[in-house]
Design a protein that fits this description.
A hairpin with a 7-residue loop joins strand 4 and strand 5. The strands form six sheets. A four-stranded antiparallel sheet has the order 5-4-8-9, with no helix packed on it. The chain has a three-stranded antiparallel sheet with strand order 1-7-6, with no helix packed on it. The chain has a three-stranded mixed sheet with strand order 3-2-10, with no helix packed on it. It has two helices and 17 strands.
Length: 268
């Protein structure tokens, strides 16, 4: 028998659960997650992976590990001062597009990042921080893909960090995020087959194989052409990518094609 003499628990200043929206599951391995002060290149701290596959930071410069609202309520000292950090995420297996965002620490709540943010009563809390598929990712079994390379006509350069939004006939929405060279992919499950392969013998001649079937999707591109990069980083702020306006899509050289009707925005 063992006697417990002392139990001590500490809080990490930041823990992030990453989520794959395609398979609707947690991303558990092979991520490199770093944090550094927004006003400096160093020190850079790398997150460690917990037993529940949350990426957490044990120590961050200028942030007390025990700092959280509950701890502050119990403390007799002055409240902690917030500090801005840049968080950068890369995938060692090249499944997801490199991503970065800025965050103020300490958080206003205890727990995993995004677990207690305010949201409408009709939506549940996010399951985790979403990462989007890289064009180098191997297509997951049972999925379809839409690939594109986008080019900014006005600036004559790749439309880096453009966001492709696909709406299916069933109302599902899927996204593809362009890398630094304007390449992107959106993976999605195949649509529901209203008329299945099985049926009465009299219908067998009218059945089509999956390769012979087609369906309509709506494709939109969100692109501003001027998403600023984070300080001392080669990546833009994640939330600014998601808030880009609709871009104007040219399928061919604009000198040879009339602009699409009813669309406006930056050419892409």
């Amino acid at each position: 028998m063992y006697d417990t003499f002392e139990i001590k628990s500490t809080n990490t200043p930041l823990g992030i659960r990453f989520w794959d929206p395609l398979i609707d599951d947690q991303i558990r391995d092979s991520l490199k997650v770093t944090a550094r002060p927004v006003d400096a290149r160093w020190p850079v701290k790398e997150a460690y992976r917990t037993l529940s596959d949350v990426y957490a930071f044990n120590r961050l410069p200028g942030i007390d590990n025990n700092t959280c609202p509950e701890c502050e309520n119990e403390s007799i000292g002055s409240p902690s001062v917030s500090k801005s950090f840049v968080i950068e995420i890369s995938d060692l297996r090249r499944r997801y597009v490199d991503t970065a965002f800025m965050i103020e620490l300490p958080l206003s709540y205890c727990g995993i990042y995004l677990s207690q943010i305010e949201c409408s009563p009709y939506r549940s809390h996010p399951k985790g921080f979403l990462l989007y598929s890289s064009p180098t990712r191997t297509r997951p079994p049972g999925t379809l893909s839409v690939r594109a390379e986008v080019w900014d006509i006005q600036s004559n350069k790749a439309a880096s960090h453009a966001l492709m939004r696909i709406t299916t006939g069933e109302g599902q929405i899927w996204y593809g995020l362009a890398d630094g060279e304007g390449r992107l992919v959106a993976y999605m499950p195949p649509p529901t087959l209203v008329n299945g392969f099985r049926g009465s013998p009299t219908d067998s001649l009218n059945q089509k194989s999956l390769l012979e079937r087609s369906w309509e999707i709506k494709v939109e591109f969100l692109y501003s052409g001027s998403v600023p990069l984070l300080p001392r980083s080669g990546l833009p702020e994640y939330r600014q990518i998601l808030c880009q306006p609709n871009g104007l899509i040219w399928q061919r050289d604009p000198a040879e094609e009339s602009p699409p009707e009813g669309q406006a925005g930056t050419s892409a």
